[in-house]
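Quick one, tokens below:
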């Protein structure tokens, strides 16, 4: 599946930010796993936009740079109302205290 199929808003946001920077990206690969994205970059297949947390991967051949005025993409938490996992209530408490 492509990013457009999985996360159309994310893809549109990335394309819009590229256009604001004055270019149209030449997209050759679309993969879902961030580690695969970094591996492709490490192999010289191009550049990628990834979350800051991917810096922890510390691949020798990959350089990370912050984007100026990078768009923020909202994340949400979802769960099933049928979920009876005893950890769920505590987890939800933690997320509420962070908003």
């Amino acid at each position: 599946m492509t990013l457009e199929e999985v996360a159309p808003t994310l893809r549109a946001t990335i394309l819009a930010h590229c256009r604001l920077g004055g270019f149209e990206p030449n997209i050759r690969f679309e993969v879902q796993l961030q580690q695969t994205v970094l591996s492709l970059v490490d192999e010289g297949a191009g550049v990628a936009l990834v979350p800051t947390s991917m810096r922890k991967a510390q691949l020798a051949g990959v350089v990370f740079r912050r984007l100026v005025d990078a768009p923020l993409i909202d994340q949400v938490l979802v769960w099933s109302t049928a979920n009876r996992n005893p950890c769920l209530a505590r987890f939800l408490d933690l997320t509420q205290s962070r908003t």
